[in-house]
Amino acid sequence: MNRTDDDEVLTLRWVAPDDVDPDYAGERDLRWRVLRVPLGMGRGTEVNAAEERCLHLVARDGERRVVGCVIFRVDPGATGQLMQMAVEPALQGQGVGRVLVAELERRVRADGVGEITLHAREVAVGFYERLGYAVYGDPFTEVSIPHRHMRKVLEARPA
Ligand SMILES: CC(C)(COP(=O)(O)OP(=O)(O)OC[C@H]1O[C@@H](n2cnc3c(N)ncnc32)[C@H](O)[C@@H]1OP(=O)(O)O)[C@@H](O)C(=O)NCCC(=O)NCCS
Predict the structure, then answer these.
(1) Ligand 1 pocket test, candidate residues 6, 127, 143, 147, most atoms within 8 A of CB
(2) pTM surpassing 0.90?
(3) Among positive and negative, which fits the CA dihedral 61, 44, 36, 121?
(4) From CA 94, how far away is CA 134, in angstroms rounded?
(5) Is 19 helix (H, G, I), strand (E, B) or coil?
């Protein structure tokens, strides 16, 4: 449990990507508003090909609104890709993203994942660097904007 500057209680929750889980619609809406609307992309474009086999983690505020999210696709070989990290604009810069990534790392490390990769928007590279991720490879374009490959090796923790 954490607190935002507004002193609202923040809770984290693993979400099932289906119509039954009440937070999945909120997660999809946040991903669309934060990651797709600024690029002029329509509703539905936030869904990715591996949607149903990804892990979905959300942060909810004191009124149970989804205010942050991240998804993770587990890949063969003890690795996987962190994707679609988004925080409600009014709450950005208050530690929500850091808490989401920390919980994601804790969970996937426990599941045996040894390395996380991601496609960072150029403007978000500094955020991931603060959390221990490093740039590698050449810059590339995705959803029409500049990106960098980043990765982090997860240190094994004693059981
Ligand atoms: C990028 C994003 C997910 C970060 O979440 P956040 O809750 O705002 O970040 P936090 O407050 O947890 O920041 C953690 C640290 O990273 C820094 N940081 C946050 N965003 C940053 C950015 N864009 N560039 C550089 N540093 C950043 C913070 O200052 C903080 O630094 P500290 O170690 O001194 O405390 C969020 O700002 C967001 O949704 N941005 C728009 C969508 C986006 O770009 N998503 C990423 C797609 S790859």
Answers:
(1) 127
(2) yes
(3) positive
(4) 22
(5) coil
* Pocket lined around ligand 1, Cβ cut-off 6 Å: 34-35, 85-87, 92-98, 120-121, 123-124, 126-127, 130
First to last CA, the chain: 23
Compute the distance between CA of residue 59 and CA of residue 76 in angstroms, rounded to an integer.
Answer: 27
CATH class of the domain comprising 2-153: alpha beta
What is the average pLDDT score of the chain? 94
Supply the pLDDT for residue 42: 97
- Ligand 1 atom 18: residue of nearest CA: 127
Q: Where are the domains of the chain?
A: 2-153
State in Å: Cα 124 to ligand 1 middle.
Answer: 6
Confidence bin at 1 (pLDDT 50/70/90): very low
Atom of ligand 1 nearest to the CA of 119: 48
Nearest alpha-carbon partner for 111 in 40, 57, 68:
57
Residue 100 pLDDT exceeds 80: yes
Percent helix, percent strand, percent coil in the chain, to nearest 5: 30, 40, 30
Q: Which tokens belong to 30?
A: 């946040």
- Are the CB atoms for 101 and 82 separated by under 8 Å? yes
